[in-house]
Amino acid sequence: MASQPSSLAGKVILVTGAAKRIGRGIALHLARAGARVAIHYNGSQSEAQKTAAESGASLFRANLESVAEIARMFEEVDRQFGHLDGLVNNAARFTTIDPLDITEADWDFIHSVNLKAVFFCCQHGARLMKKSGGGRIVNISSLGGIRPWADHAHYCASKAGVIMLTRALAKGFAPEITVNSVAPGVIPFGPLDLEAESMVRATPAQRPGTAEEIAEAVSYFLCASNFITGQVLAVDGGLSQR
């Protein structure tokens, strides 16, 4: 029996922060499924070029701290592809700081990309999607948006914000556009530090996850009907249940 074509085949999907790590995994997975992938990057040009070469994707550079650059990026996507079917907001920052030592600059460094940029990417993406009848948005949140981590209060707040933003926009963009979130657990791309090792030991699955497992969850939401929206799927080996 011949295999059925992927429902992502030919779909134009923009993935932010797709040069490396989870974003790279998502971009490669979507390309293998036949999607026309647009890769956003900012500082990681060589990594972005490598990912683009492997996936046949187009590259779009923007500093997501700037709403003007976000707007320009979506204008460029529109000019090149003529429409947008899916958006994966993956780009994020992560730092470890005692909450007593967090400065305004530390807070803004995280929230300018992790939350503010996610909203404005959703806004501009939704405007494009509505022009062509609808689309799918997937926001990458985090286990840190579900469970509190003492030395990551600013990060946890940003990712909890992404989860609530997902739920609010699912209502605001309905029914043409769905908005869902994938919350990764421990997804290493190098040696685990002591904190991550402790988290893996506490994970019911007894192992860390992979970028491919996150990409599979993203693909599910990109293909799902508009009856599935405003949802958060924790891909964490069961750690959020403990």
Short description:
The chain is of the alpha/beta class and 242 residues long. It has a single domain, classed as Rossmann fold (3-Layer(aba) Sandwich).
Written description of the protein model:
The chain contains seven helices and seven strands, in the order E-H-E-H-E-H-E-H-E-H-E-H-H-E. It has 242 residues and is of the alpha/beta class. It has a single domain, classed as NAD(P)-binding Rossmann-like Domain (Rossmann fold), CATH 3.40.50.720. Helix 4 links the parallel strand 4 and strand 5 (135-140). Helix 4 packs parallel to helix 5. The model has no long low-confidence stretch (mean pLDDT 96).
Q: Could you say which structural class the secondary elements and strand pairing correspond to?
A: alpha/beta
Quickly name the level 1 CATH class: Alpha Beta
Mean pLDDT value: 96
How widely separated are the two ends? 43 Å
- Strand sequence of the main sheet, in spatial order? 3-2-1-4-5-6-7
Low-confidence stretches: none
Rg, Cα atoms, Å: 17 Å
Number of strands: 7
The helix-strand sequence is EHEHEHEHEHEHHE
Q: Which sheet architecture does the biggest sheet show?
A: 7 strands, parallel
- In the CATH hierarchy, the third-tier topology is known as Rossmann fold
CATH architecture: 3-Layer(aba) Sandwich
Shape: globular
Tally of structural domains: 1
CATH superfamily caption: NAD(P)-binding Rossmann-like Domain
Binned, the helix content reads 40-55%
Describe the structure using short key phrases.
242 residues, alpha/beta, Rossmann fold, seven-stranded parallel beta sheet, 7 helices, 45% helix, 15% strand
